[in-house]
């Protein structure tokens, strides 16, 4: 086994929870998430030689996980996002100032291109530049999508709170 393969195996071993959580955030099913992780690892190992910068292993592998997750959703024609349990596991020990149910509902309503940016930025704590690598988009496109996604979430959350008052 080569140096890149060993580096990749160590990366996956050290980050298995984050990788699983990323896949689960898309498919919202433990078995499907495990299948996606397995398929992603297989695809990564078979194309390990395409990685240009071993220091960017996270972005490179997250792109594979995201693409396989989106392919799976297209085939299933279903789109899901984090449930309350996963939201809590993403940031353990912190109290959120929002209602998880409202946020979950609002995230569910976002188109996948906006949901991906929110999940990677706020739940995976990735920088804008890393997200642009993962999603293979221009940095300015990611910034615009993030802004639009946050605006859509704000509008959705405000609409839901108005409905609750009525």
Task: Give the structure's gist in a few sentences.
The chain is an all-alpha fold. The protein has helices at 3-14, 16-27, 30-46, 57-76, 84-90, 100-109, 112-123, 128-135, 139-165. This is Sigma-70 family RNA polymerase sigma factor.
Give structural attributes.
166 residues; mainly alpha; Rna Polymerase Sigma Factor, Chain: A; Arc Repressor Mutant, subunit A; 2 domains; 9 helices; 75% helix; globular
Explain the overall architecture:
There is one protein chain. This protein is an all-alpha fold. It folds into two domains: about 1-80, Rna Polymerase Sigma Factor, Chain: A (Orthogonal Bundle); about 95-165, Winged helix-like DNA-binding domain superfamily/Winged helix DNA-binding domain (Arc Repressor Mutant, subunit A). The chain is about 75% helix and about 0% strand. The protein is built from nine helices and no strands. The protein has helices spanning about 5-15, 15-25, 30-45, 55-75, 85-90, 100-110, 110-125, 130-135, 140-165. The N and C termini lie far apart (about 65 Å).
**What is the CATH topology assignment of the largest domain?**
Rna Polymerase Sigma Factor, Chain: A
E-strand count: 0
Main beta-sheet strand count, sense and barrel state: none
CATH class of the largest domain: Mainly Alpha
In the predicted model, the low-confidence regions spanning at least 5 consecutive residues are 90-99
- What would you call the quaternary organization? single chain
Helix content: over 70%
Alpha-beta classification: mainly alpha
| CATH hierarchy: architecture of the largest domain | Orthogonal Bundle
Into which percentage range does the β-strand content fall?
Answer: under 5%
Question: Over the alpha carbons, how many angstroms does the gyration radius reach?
Answer: 17 Å
> Rough shape?
globular
* Arithmetic mean of pLDDT: 79
- Count of individual helical segments: 9
Helices and strands, in order, run as HHHHHHHHH
Distance N to C terminus? 64 Å
Can you tell me the CATH superfamily of the largest domain? RNA polymerase sigma factor, region 2, helix turn helix motif
Domain module tally = 2
């Amino acid at each position: 086994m080569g140096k890149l393969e060993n580096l990749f195996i160590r990366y996956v071993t050290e980050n298995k929870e984050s990788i699983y959580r990323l896949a689960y955030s898309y498919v919202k099913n433990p078995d499907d998430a495990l299948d996606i992780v397995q398929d992603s690892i297989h695809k990564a190992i078979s194309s390990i030689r395409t990685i240009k910068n071993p220091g960017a292993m996270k972005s490179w592998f997250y792109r594979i996980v995201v693409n396989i997750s989106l392919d799976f959703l297209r085939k299933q024609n279903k789109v899901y996002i984090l449930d309350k349990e996963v939201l809590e596991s993403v940031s353990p020990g912190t109290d959120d100032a929002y209602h998880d149910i409202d946020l979950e509902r609002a995230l569910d309503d976002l188109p996948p291109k906006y949901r991906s940016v929110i999940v990677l930025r706020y739940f995976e704590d990735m920088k804008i530049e890393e997200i642009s690598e993962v999603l293979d988009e221009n940095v300015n496109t990611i910034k615009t999508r993030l802004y639009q996604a946050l605006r859509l979430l704000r509008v959705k959350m405000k609409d839901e709170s108005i409905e609750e008052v009525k």
